[in-house]
Amino acid sequence: MIAKSVILILLLAMVISLGVAMFSMMRDKGRGTGTVKALTYRVAIWAFLLLLIVGGLYTGLLQPGGSLKQAAINTQQ
Q1: 42 vs 31: CA distance, rounded Å
Q2: 17 and which of 2, 9, 40, 42 could share a cystine (Cβ 3.0–4.6 Å)?
Q3: What is the pLDDT along the chain (77 residues), one digit of tens a residue?
Q4: CA distance 64 to 55
Q5: Domain boundaries, given as residue ranges, for the chain
Q6: Whole-prediction pTM value?
Q7: How far apart are CA 69 and CA 25, in angstroms?
């Protein structure tokens, strides 16, 4: 449950980072570094999120949903 909460928080942080980048781009008219910093944070969050999901699936901490399990069963038949 904690892993899913962390994933949701990171997804929210990515959306906030995109909003900050958009606000910075509109405010500075593309001349500042705020947009680049916000998008860099977004990429870093994405990379950490990817590692967290892959690690969670590998260790069994996260379980795939029903549709993914059903797809795996259908391909084995």
Answers
A1: 20
A2: 42
A3: 788 899 899 999 999 999 988 888 888 876 778 888 888 999 999 999 999 989 988 998 888 776 767 777 778 77
A4: 13
A5: 2-76
A6: 0.71
A7: 42
Residue with tokens 């990171």: 10
pLDDT at 11: 92
Dist. CA 29–CA 34, nearest whole Å: 11
What distances in angstroms separate CA 22 from CA 15, 32, 34, 42, one per listed residue? Answer: 11, 12, 9, 12
Q: In this structure, what token pair is assigned to residue 45?
A: 């969050």
Closest CA to 13 of 33, 31, 38, 37: 38
The Cα 26–Cα 44 span in angstroms is 23
